[in-house]
Amino acid sequence: MIHWFYERLLLRNLTKLPQHVCFMITGEDMIEAPGKIYETTEWCREVGLRGATFHISTDRPEEIRACLPAIKKIRNIASLDLHYADTVEKAGEGMDVTVAVGMSGREEIAACIRKIAEEEVDPTEIDEELIERHLTFRCMPDLVIKTGGNYLTDFLIWQSVYSELFFLDVNWKWFRKVDFLRALRDYQSRARRFGT
Hints:
By secondary structure, this protein is an alpha/beta fold.
């Protein structure tokens, strides 16, 4: 009952929302609470976010295979873009949701450079816009939420350079809507400088 009241209070005071939020979780987190990703997507939809990205950090994507049905359930309430191993699946309609399993920001940048090299682009024509057009993930998250401590991966290393970061001591399994709303409240209280 107290959590419900606190949620309502937090919701009432949210006036400036991020457009896109990235959640960074571990493979172990996903295995312990596979349904949490759908639940969190529902919260994002309820508050009116434009998009959400979930990065599942793992060196062994195959360990997440049993969680794929829970991830794919997202397509029932949103437009899901699932990157798993060497496959990309797109399905559903509505808010954009990307789920990336075991992907590295360094790998993405290396792949981006290879694509540009294959196109034989004159080096003098390479700029930020060109690089961004060749990235696998085009979202620029306003807010990155990391549950279970302060270790971040290099995922979205280019795209998140100006993102606000929010660290939670609580593990993904115990991540509640009130924690999500607290992260949004914290975001709106920050003065974003975009590197200046």
